[in-house]
Amino acid sequence: xxxxxxxxxxxxxxxxxxxxxxxxxxxxxxxxxxxxxxxxxxxxxxxxxxxxxxxxxxxxxxxxxxxxxxxxxxxxxxxxxxxxxxxxxxxxxxxxxxxxxxxxxxxxxxxxxxxxxxxxxxxxxxxxxxxxxxxxxxxxxxxxxxxxxxxxxxxxxxxxxxxxxxxxxxxxxxxxxxxxxxxxxxxxxxxxxxxxxxxxxxxxxxxxxxxxxxxxxxxxxxxxxxxxxxxxxxxxxxxxxxxxxxxxxxxxxxxxxxxxxxxxxxxxxxxxxxxxxxxxxxxxxxxxxxxxxxxxxxxxxxxxxxxxxxxxxxxxxxxxxxxxxxxxxxxxxxxxxxxxxxxxxxxxxxxxxxxxxxxxxxxxxxxxxxxxxxx
Length: 375
Hints:
Blueprint: H1 2-5, H2 12-21, H3 25-32, H4 40-73, E1 79-81, H5 83-90, E2 101-105, H6 111-119, E3 123-125, H7 129-138, E4 141-146, E5 152-156, H8 170-175, E6 178-182, E7 185-189, H9 192-205, H10 211-222, H11 229-238, H12 242-255, H13 264-268, H14 272-287, H15 294-303, H16 308-327, H17 331-336, H18 347-368
Helix pairs in contact: 3-4, 9-10, 9-11, 9-12, 10-12, 11-12, 12-14, 15-16
């Protein structure tokens, strides 16, 4: 590693930019601190960034605890997963995992109550009232942003859209919940085995386009050497996500070949399609092409399904979604321009222009802020 850093022409700006894009700058920084040959200005920049990240994460974790207590006082059961829990538990250091959202799993029956609690305690919905009602009836989550602090809370009552075809049994999931002591507080999170499948499904949903999602699963497995792999594999088969699990574990194995139990990676490699998907993931990571979008992403997700029917249903859903996205106006179009009821048909003409501007703005934002993104 030190020989690589000292090589002529090593581009530090490119290295830091790639680490930021892949969400692993904290991990890179922690390793650079113990290596020789790192330029002092680079070390200082990374240290300052890590201090800022640690402060921001600590504030977000404090907010997680506040929300947890607020919900508990009102009888709303919560389970926290992804970002903050990963940082504090799997990485054992809040500073080593940058996260953006506070993800909270609740019972569907508590969705409206939890929504009201957040709205009464400094949060605003990311949707209009009409959009919220639609999400409560048809979706699996609601998003909220704090009015004065850079905090975002996502309430989930399921773990994925039905079209994604990852539908774990929620009563079993809740029964397997574990309580962790994190930062001096008792935090409930998903069971160790359930978390493996949730992290695998989450990384797959994003096409494993960022290295952080492989690191998340790797570190979770590392801190849980007692995992019941027979149970995990059996659950993956019953949920028809065994190929997704195999792909995820093959990525973990190539990142660190000492994390998985002996022989498990060999079992995963029996699925030739999982091996091919793994190769595609690494190619995209190393050539810097970033997120899988459009039909490439949809084809990747279809290839990850082990049942032909699931793949066909997924692709059909995407075709319908694309049609609606392009042609059917929604609440954002109506919020942009308020037209009289009799002129509502003009929203169909307005929508392509708004979508075009959205694409341009999104590309500009990615160029200016490569470190933003999903947890």
